[in-house]
């Protein structure tokens, strides 16, 4: 093929090397443009940041000051921790603060009003008075009940008409909704700041203390009954009713094992038992025969539950029964159980109960 034909064919195709070189030059040029633009943007950004920094700082200071002004907290809900922070940091005018004048008579807010009405706060931003109590602790049943003053003033809206101001403040203080808010405010201070428990917790603590005191009073009595039971001695005698006389010169007549053991415990230094007998009403000493029987019945129930639990753990057991007559000539069936004690790995025979026999026929 001739040279001319080759040129004719090649003319239909672009040179790859030439195109790449041109693209590289263009890319390099574009990169320089991008770098120049970035430098320009950085310079502009630095200028903007420097110019806006002072404004942003001023805005932060203004926001910080606004959060200390009473008007910032109107119509908002706050947690208990936030309320404590508000009460500690809310702005209060200095005694020498110059309040702005308003109206034709050039009246102004008086700092002495805040001394007379502890709930009163002045808003520097709005140049008006507000009720701190009603703003932070609004009553749950709504505002305005029981009073004739528009609840918007001092609560939702500022009050800055300084004419007959003290009369209006007094009316607000006597309003039903303000009194409810004041009760909530006072309770909050007592609970949160003075670290006093809420009423329901105080009641629970009182009941808990009373329960523990009653247990302390019952403990020596129960121990005395258990001692008599373990030793197999009777509790009562012929003179075992009435108040126990702790006087050393009292009658030396034997009042039964239980009452004599009670006196012995007191002589041995049981001050809790002594205080119980000296300060408690006669019908609340827990020494009567009915209380003794009730304690014995409770002990019987607990012992049976313990024995039955041990028997249930055993793989096998046997019921033993026999008959006897008690001192009152009543027929009693003695009920016992024989079982394997897995804990001690031995055979045990334990008494369960006396059962009165109602019918002797087979």
Report what the structure shows.
The protein contains eleven helices and five strands, in the order ααααββαααααααβββ. The relative contact order is 0.05. Helices cover 51% and strands 11% of the residues. A three-stranded antiparallel sheet has the order 3-4-5, covered by helices on one side. With 362 residues, it is mainly alpha-helical. It has helices at 3-10, 16-66, 80-89, 112-116, 132-136, 165-174, 176-193, 199-231, 257-267, 271-279, 289-313, and strands spanning 120-123, 128-131, 317-325, 331-341, 346-356. The longest helix has 51 residues, at 16-66.
Which helices and strands, and how do they pair?
Elements: H1 3-10, H2 16-66, H3 80-89, H4 112-116, E1 120-123, E2 128-131, H5 132-136, H6 165-174, H7 176-193, H8 199-231, H9 257-267, H10 271-279, H11 289-313, E3 317-325, E4 331-341, E5 346-356
Antiparallel strand pairs: 1-2, 3-4, 4-5
Helix pairs in contact: 8-9
Brief summary of the model shown:
The N and C termini lie far apart (141 Å). It is built from 11 helices and 5 strands.
User: Taking strands numbered 1, 2, ... along the chain, how are they ordered across the largest sheet?
Assistant: 3-4-5
Given the structure, what is the number of helices?
A: 11
Average pLDDT score: 78
Overall shape: elongated
- The assigned structural class equals mainly alpha
Q: Determine Rg (CA atoms, Å).
A: 46 Å
Percent of residues in beta strands? 5-15%
Order of helices and strands: HHHHEEHHHHHHHEEE
CA distance, first residue to last residue: 141 Å
Q: How many strand segments? A: 5
- Largest pleated sheet: 3 strands, antiparallel
Q: Low-confidence spans: pLDDT under 50, at least 5 residues?
A: 1-21, 144-150
The helical percent reads: 40-55%
InterPro entries: DUF4371 (IPR025398), Znf_TTF (IPR006580)
